[in-house]
Task: inverse folding
């Protein structure tokens, strides 16, 4: 999806009157990710389907750990960009720990599909906002410089070992800085993403063939083995029962033969369309059946049916069958087709479920800072101490001087001594950390990794300095409205 650049001057600031200096003229960018409910529904199913197979398949964002930068320290102190300001953390839902780790529920991973089609992730956090629907992460975790935004972008708070305990939150709109997009300026390497209400799988339900055909979302036909007697009764509902066997050269007979049983034979849509209706050899067997499948199943399918995608983005296979009536031998099983749909549920607004960290800007350096993330990449020397499966943290004071970097366009980053490796990108930098409440104020997000002493080990990380321009981008995101994508019965909302 192409990016939409909106200059600040074209849109008035909201009435919250964040402390932005009059002389500043920043620009912000609003990026549509998955604003439509039907597309968000498909994105959420993509990550949760097959017991979260896509989540487990993802790897950290494609940083090359061998290209970590060197720190160039600047003179001076905190950039002068107006008075400091802050928005307090949300209290609802934010207290307490995740079940498995001693960390806040707000911390999680963002998952997306990159331009090469690979499943990727970065770190992120829920952040307080007017509509309790905002995620803070790195700008490079939303799009590649000069490229389109990433596809199927979702946030999973409290992520732990492939589980999405609090649901999946699909990105609707991302708000970033104009300079990062236009000039690849990492002084603006941050993003605030407004997400839809949470989405979780809620089991399955057997429905009629008519309801099955109309359903948008995961659906499949499950065979239930039945007796020969049950099969005989079921044949009145042609298209829902069949037999399977490995009989040697079974005799072809007519459907009225007292021993005849029905097989279904998968054919091409052309053969199916030429077949007639009724009970006879080669006649149509029920209506074509479309099933939502995993990408691996979709790619591996070599049958005569058709492959495609449905209106919510699921990979689908449509199969066509005709009748084959046989006089069976002894080796045969009988089946009834159960039409099953996958149900979903709305888990609520992000901030109502896990809370949201506060937000701060124009803060002094040299503050105690807690940084969270999911490091995974090896150090430049090849050592790999992190798996990316569980979140880690660093704690310490940020440097008193802003820094520059060699490889990236960096002039005013804040730096922290920390050995977390890529995968931690986008993780929050929290000041005024309250350990009992598990809350603080987001004052940065991990952007760049450094080997400052030249021993081929990451030893520092840095974040863009959150100033008045950051406050402006946040202010725009703060008013973004999103919605539920499923109704009370698991149905897709338009």
Result:
């Amino acid at each position: 999806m192409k990016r939409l650049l909106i200059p600040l001057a074209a849109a008035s600031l909201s009435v919250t009157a964040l402390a932005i200096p009059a002389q500043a003229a920043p620009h912000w960018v609003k990026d549509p990710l998955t604003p439509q409910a039907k597309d968000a529904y498909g994105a959420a199913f993509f990550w949760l389907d097959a017991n979260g197979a896509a989540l487990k398949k993802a790897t950290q964002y494609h940083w090359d750990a061998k290209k970590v930068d060197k720190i160039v320290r600047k003179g001076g102190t905190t950039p002068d960009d107006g008075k400091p300001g802050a928005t307090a953390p949300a209290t609802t839902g934010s207290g307490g720990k995740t079940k498995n780790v001693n960390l806040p529920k707000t911390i999680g991973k963002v998952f997306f599909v990159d331009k090469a089609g690979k499943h990727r992730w970065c770190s992120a956090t829920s952040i307080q906002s007017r509509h309790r629907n905002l995620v803070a992460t790195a700008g490079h975790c939303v799009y590649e410089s000069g490229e389109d935004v990433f596809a199927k972008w979702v946030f999973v708070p409290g992520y732990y070992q492939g589980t999405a305990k609090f649901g999946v939150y699909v990105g609707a709109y991302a708000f970033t800085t104009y300079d990062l997009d236009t000039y690849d300026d990492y002084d603006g390497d941050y993003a605030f993403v407004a997400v839809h209400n949470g989405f979780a799988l809620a089991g399955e339900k057997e429905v009629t063939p008519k309801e099955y055909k109309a359903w948008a979302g995961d659906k499949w036909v499950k065979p239930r083995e039945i007796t020969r007697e049950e099969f005989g009764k079921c044949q009145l509902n042609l298209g829902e029962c069949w037999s399977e066997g490995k009989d040697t050269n079974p005799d072809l007979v007519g459907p009225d033969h007292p021993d005849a049983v029905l097989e279904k034979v998968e054919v091409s849509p052309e053969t199916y369309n030429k077949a007639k209706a009724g009970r006879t050899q080669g006649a149509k067997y029920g209506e074509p059946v479309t099933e939502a499948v995993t990408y691996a199943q979709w790619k591996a399918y070599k049958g005569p049916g058709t492959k495609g995608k449905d209106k919510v983005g699921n990979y689908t296979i449509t199969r066509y069958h005709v009748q084959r009536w046989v006089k069976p031998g002894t080796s045969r099983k009988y089946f009834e087709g159960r039409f099953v749909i996958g149900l979903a549920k709305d888990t609520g607004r992000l901030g109502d479920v896990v809370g949201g960290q506060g937000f701060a800007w124009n803060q002094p350096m040299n503050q105690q800072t807690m940084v969270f993330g999911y490091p995974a990449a090896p150090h430049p020397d090849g050592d790999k101490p992190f798996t990316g499966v569980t979140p880690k943290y660093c704690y310490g004071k940020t440097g008193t001087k802003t820094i520059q970097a060699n490889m990236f366009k960096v002039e005013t980053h804040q730096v922290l001594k920390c050995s977390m490796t890529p995968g931690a990108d986008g993780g929050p930098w929290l000041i005024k950390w309250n350990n009992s409440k598990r809350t603080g104020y987001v004052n940065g997000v991990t952007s760049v990794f450094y080997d400052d002493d030249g021993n081929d080990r990451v030893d520092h990380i840095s974040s863009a300095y959150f100033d008045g321009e950051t406050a402006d981008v946040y202010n725009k995101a703060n008013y973004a409205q999103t919605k539920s994508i499923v109704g009370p019965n698991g149905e897709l909302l338009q």
Q: What stands out?
A: The chain has eight helices and 28 strands. Residues 74 and 403 are 5 Å apart (CA to CA). Residues 37-57 form the longest helix (21 residues).
